[in-house]
Amino acid sequence: MDKARIHRLILDSLAADLQLLQRAAQAAYEAATDEQNIAENKYDTLGLEASYLATGQARRAAEIKQALGLFENLRLRAFDPAQGIGLSALVLLAAEDGSEQRLFLGPEAAGLKVLDEGEEITVISPRSPLGQALLGKAEGAEVTLTIGNSQQTFEVLEVH
């Protein structure tokens, strides 16, 4: 797997999401401030609702902009078994049921999914339970997560 290509896919996805959210926030702002949406009575809340929507979209755009900046400054590192898994690691995990998932440990944007040559890669952050559990681990390590009353065990198959 080409980690630099995956990094570029993440950057492109974040940039596209940011553009889309900025346009949506602008449209919601324009709807909120449009003369036609001035409340005529206490039950007329279209302008207020558009204002809430614009605020939420602007906040989400700011989060994506921050993640984009962190990914732009992320230095991709080759895996060092002595240090274990850290930021920019590309990890292949196997669950007890035999299913596998490929993860990219990034500074933000947890949950973002990108496709590389038909394979899905999910971004996780060190703040997530799985991200925390993976830090410092090497190939062959077992990672056990306890979430609520359930326990899941994964094996680290590959690290790049």
UniProtKB/TrEMBL annotation:
<dbReference type="InterPro" id="IPR036953">
    <property type="entry name" value="GreA/GreB_C_sf"/>
</dbReference>
<dbReference type="GO" id="GO:0032784">
    <property type="term" value="P:regulation of DNA-templated transcription elongation"/>
</dbReference>
<dbReference type="GO" id="GO:0003677">
    <property type="term" value="F:DNA binding"/>
</dbReference>
<dbReference type="InterPro" id="IPR001437">
    <property type="entry name" value="Tscrpt_elong_fac_GreA/B_C"/>
</dbReference>
<protein>
    <recommendedName>
        <fullName>Transcription elongation factor GreA/GreB C-terminal domain-containing protein</fullName>
    </recommendedName>
</protein>
<dbReference type="Pfam" id="PF01272">
    <property type="entry name" value="GreA_GreB"/>
</dbReference>
<feature type="domain" description="Transcription elongation factor GreA/GreB C-terminal">
    <location>
        <begin position="123"/>
        <end position="160"/>
    </location>
</feature>
